[in-house]
Structures are given as structure tokens and as C-alpha cells.
Design a protein that fits this description.
9 strands; three-stranded antiparallel beta sheet
Length: about 250
């Protein structure tokens, strides 16, 4: 089995054949469940258990290292160099397929909390806010629908005061969803808005216009009180040209 290659394990025979290709005593771990775009939740044929080979770092006890656990070093070679110790692991995972029986190229964590956590990291690592904002919209919308459904209380199992408070909460979440929708309009930000906040002119640019996502590096801009230049998108380059006299703009 190639490192990282996914295999559907539809029967115990398939799983046994895969396991037979691993050294005796190879650890088996379970990864987080993932779902492919286009998966149909009610189609049970799209649910699969997949297996893959991964190499994970080892701790001092010779077992896969956990989060924050020190990684063990191997013996020094003839040149005095040491390498971190890694070992093969058979990783099993529940995967919801878009096409039954076929592993698609893309999948995301099925747990929405995990998706939001991953998307939040994208903001710092990839300068992408859009995935997190869209996950946030979905989370607020799902919670609003849940609360509204419970607040109906068709079987009259809730205290009347609880129903009233849930009605109010449902209305508040509906308002929160609208705010989240507004926030989701603003994806990645051009460098002028990101790094030029020390300029007194920046307040002329902080309006409700999203950055041009297709061209965040359209123009190099120097505001009058900035000692350096920053690239900006086409939208905010036009605003600078209109509102900030004395600015220098150079197409990129």
C-alpha cells in the first residue's frame, strides 16, 4: 500500500488483505470522519470505511506520539546525524462518499466544530477568511432552526416560560444569522487594509465594500503619511484615488 493512498474496506476479507501487508504489531488508529462534497445523507451506499498507510512520529515508548508529546530520536549514523523516529500506522476512517463505491478527490471533516476550527486556522495560515465565515453562517442557521423547532413544543413538554424564552432566542439567532451573512461578504483582505491601519487616512477606506477577491494585488499604494507602500485591490485603489489626495498609486 502506498503512503496516504485510500482503500475502501467493504468486507473483512479486504481488511484482512490490507492488514497482511503490514508488519506484525502495526498500530491501528481511527481518523476523524470526513464527508465529500455532494454526499447524499440518506443514501447509505455512500457510507464507507477507508484504510490508508500513514507514517507517524514515535514517542520514547515506541508508540505513536500524541499532541505535544516529545518525539523520539534514532541512533546516530556514521556522520553523527540523528533522525526523528517514524513508524507505519494503519489508519481507518469513516468517509461519506459523493459517489457510492468511489473515493472522491476532496473531503472535509464531518464534524462542523472541527471544520470551523480548521477554517479558523486558514485565516492565519492562508489569509482566507471565507471558509470560516461560511461555516459560521451555517452553524448559526442550523442552531436557529433547531431552537425554532423545539420552541414550537407540539407535545407541550416545556414550561410556558421556557417556550417564550426560546421564541426570543430564535428571533435573536435569526438576527445573528443576518449579521453572519453580512460578515461572509468580506473574504480575504488586501494588504493595504490589513497593514495600513496606522495611517490616519485608513478610516476613509473602512467602508462596507468587500475587497476584489480576483485581484488583491492590483495597485501599489502609498498613503500621504505612510513611509512604505502596500498592494491593494482594485476596489480600494479606486477609493484611495477618490478620497485620499496626495496618494501615490502604481499599477502592479
Amino acid at each position: 500500500m502506498d503512503d496516504g493512498q485510500l482503500h475502501i474496506t467493504a468486507t473483512t476479507d479486504v481488511l484482512a488483505d490490507i492488514a497482511a501487508g503490514f508488519p506484525h504489531g502495526t498500530p491501528v488508529l481511527v481518523d476523524v470522519e470526513e464527508v465529500e462534497p455532494g454526499h447524499v445523507p440518506r443514501d447509505m451506499r455512500g457510507w464507507a470505511v477507508v484504510a490508508r498507510l500513514v507514517h507517524l512520529p514515535l514517542n520514547a515508548a515506541g508508540t505513536p506520539a500524541g499532541p505535544g508529546e516529545p518525539i523520539a530520536w534514532g541512533e546516530k549514523d556514521a556522520e553523527g546525524r540523528q533522525r526523528l523516529l517514524y513508524a507505519p500506522v494503519l489508519m481507518l476512517q469513516s468517509r461519506k462518499l459523493a459517489v457510492p463505491g468511489r473515493i472522491g478527490p476532496v473531503a472535509h471533516p464531518a464534524d462542523p466544530c472541527r471544520r470551523r476550527a480548521d477554517a479558523a486556522m486558514f485565516i492565519g495560515h492562508r489569509d482566507e477568511a471565507g471558509p470560516y465565515l461560511m461555516e459560521l453562517v451555517q452553524a448559526v442557521a442550523e442552531l436557529q432552526r433547531e431552537v425554532a423547532t423545539i420552541a414550537v413544543d407540539e407535545l407541550r413538554r416545556l414550561h410556558p416560560a421556557a417556550r417564550r424564552h426560546l421564541d426570543r432566542l430564535s428571533d435573536a439567532l435569526e438576527h445573528a444569522r443576518a449579521i453572519a451573512d453580512d460578515a461572509a461578504r468580506f473574504d480575504s483582505v488586501c494588504k493595504l487594509l490589513e497593514l495600513g491601519t496606522r495611517s490616519k487616512w485608513i478610516y476613509e477606506l473602512l467602508d462596507e465594500q468587500p475587497c476584489d477577491q480576483d485581484n488583491l494585488y492590483h495597485t501599489l499604494v502609498t498613503l500621504p503619511d505612510m513611509a512604505w507602500s502596500e498592494p491593494t485591490c482594485q476596489v480600494h485603489a479606486a477609493i484611495v484615488r477618490e478620497r485620499v489626495p496626495g496618494s501615490q498609486l502604481e499599477p502592479l
